[in-house]
Predict the structure.
Amino acid sequence: MATKRNAIGILMGVELVLNGANVNLVAFSHYTTLGIDGQIYSLFVIVLAAAEAAVALAIALNFYNNHLTIDVDRANRLKG
Amino acid sequence: MVGETLIPTLLTIAWLLPLLGFAVEMLYGRKGERTTTKWPAWCAVACIGTGFLCSLIALLTWGQATGWAVLESHDLHGPDQHHSEDDPHHHGDSPKHQASTNESGWQMTALTATENSDDAEHVPFPSVYSGTLYTLGVFGSLVVSIDYYIDSLTLVMFTMVTLIATCIHLFAMGYMSDELTNEYVDHFAHTSDGKHVHRPGRFYRFFAYMSLFCFSMLGLVLAGNIFQVFVFWELVGICSYLLIGFYTERKSAGDAANKAFIMNRIGDFGFLIGLMVVWTWFGTFQFSELFDSLPRDATGHIVTNDLGEVAVSTHSGESRSIPYSLLVVAGLGVFAGCIGKSAQFPLQTWLPDAMEGPTPVSALVHSATMVAAGVYLVGRFYPMFVPEVLLTIAYIGAITLFLAATIAVVATDIKRVLAYSTISQLGYMMLGLGVFGWAAGLFHLITHAFFKSLMFLCSGSVIHGCHHEQEMPKMGGLMRKMPITAGTMLIGVIAISGLAVPGLIAFSGYHSKDAIVATALAFIQANPAHFLLFLLPLLTAGITAFYMFRLWFYTFFGEPRDQHIYDHAHESPWIMTAPLLVLAVFAAGCAIGGEKGMLYMMLLGSEPVHVANGVPAATVGELVLPGHSAIHDVHAKAGMWALLAAISGTLLAYVLYGTKTVNLSDMKRQLAGIHQFLSEKWYFDELYHALFMKPVHQVAALFAWIDRTMIDRVVHASAGLMVKISKWDRFFDETFVDGLVNLIARATFSSGILLKAVQTGRLRQYVMFIVVGVVALFAVLFTTFPN
């Protein structure tokens, strides 16, 4: 994710990170005394990921509309 | 009786119509100004003209309702008022009266009705309509209301005022027509860079003010209580102020307006004192209640008890004793108001200056109506005046008439001559009233109104024709250029001079002046100590004839003195000459029949009852007030004397100004002292300047000095202290408060600069930071908590 310049690639990387975190949550919850808390958390994360994907795709689309590219290195106008 | 409701209604309509006219002209006048149409003038004329018709109908209704008994009262007995209604001759005349709109017409017929009467004995005639139109407020026992008090005096005044006002409005439509422009150039007013003042014309405003004045004047005449009189008294005062200062751009006009108003305030202060006395001691302002409250015995004395107090019964039924001196104070107080309004000595100086207003204003306000309001009020309030007050009135009138006449002899401004003549004639009226000639004084008021407004309009016509030249020495020979003006002016001059061929032809002034002089003669025969009260008016009758004919000869007779003005002079248009002709008819004929004529008899009908028989000896003092019979006895003699004086004055004027036998400038040089004294108006302006204005200025200078040296110093010191404290405060603010705030801001700013470097805007770098951060976090976590 950190090496991609393609916005869609980054988006897919973010999804992978989130899914990795989900796997961790579910797996580690097996070894704790917290019951199904890990699974519940992973559900939250899935919902969040869905929302994030919607917003992020919209951003990517608008970015493309404005710059005719999805190279995120071109999105540097907000630097201080 | 039909008159009881009809007459007040008609007069109220006549009274309120000009107010309506004023409102319309004020609200919509500006539109007329832009299009420069004459409709505001026609609106004003319509209002006042309708008012005249209403007054005339009211007058005729009144005569009808009383069966013209007033005119025949000397034949009849008091209670038998309706006798004349049975008179077939008179009854047959009545429709003709009603149909005729020309006043002179019915005066002629009225004359025939009175010709066969021979004895001028007065019969009290109960013909007063009084009532309340509207109650404004009730404060305890004080009732402030709009009342009416209508007797034949009111009706005659209404008809006179509305008729003259209609004529003058018509005249003014021509005279003021140069205001009908958006670019009026005032040749008498200059801007600071020495150019003439240019301004939009104010045609509509002139007529609005005139309408407001008519409303106020008619309200004053109609008023049924002394408080209401006071209110309208002030209203005519403010109208006079507005009209004198009509040419506001001229400094002289503004000064004159102020002078008139302030001089009137002095008199009105006395009026207020009189009102207070009346209210405190009589508890009412109503004429009808006041006049009945003073107790009189059979001879007309006011009855006093041993303590010198007068027992009056107030309208609420209780009786109380009033110190006699308070009656004197009340009378003198009200008379002080009349002194101011009628420009009597010592407040006479404002009237000549008031000539700064347009000439129609001088004719209407400052000769015929407003200044006569003082005389009218003296006549209206007559029953409340005790003999001491009447004597004061007589002396004030005598001084005024002589003083003003002498000044008029040397004045050269045509309007100022007429102004002084007005003051002098008002003096005659006051004198007449003061020496117990009630009807004589008011008779002169009416006749004077006609001939003086006529003469003012003539002078206006001359001024209009000569392009605003008012100096008589530059005129002369104008008779050939403006024959109508010259002719009507001559009628006015003859009328005011009192010239006549006795028994054959006599203009109005002859009759009324005769009546006053005769009353004065009867008065001094009864009181020889007051001989001046006869000598002064007699002498002044001659002076009057002299200065009036001087004016006429100067202006219209002989050779032109200033060829340029003469060449450009022209007769005025018909709208200005027609009112002259109408007024000339009245100036000549309104007093036809003299003391047996219609007008005098009408006035006599309202005469206070106690005047007729005279009062033999006053309770306090040793005055004897003459009755009708005493006056009648000396009438022929007094008339002869007055006529002689007038003829000699006329002849002298003819010799001096009509022929060229005497070198005027030589004479002026020989009499330089007197000439100087008179043309400086007896130094009254200088006297008042030294007596009142200079002390005020000096006191003001003293206070200014105290202000500057003491009060200002304290104020300045405290101000300096405040400045020092503020400086310290500023230092503290700037260094400490501002320093702290700036420090925080600077710290925030520099940390922002530092952090700025991190925000590169490169997304992948941010992700790297996150990864590095997470790794670092885990590293720290695991090194800190190894288990």
Notes: Residues 52 and 79 of chain A are 23 Å apart (CA to CA).
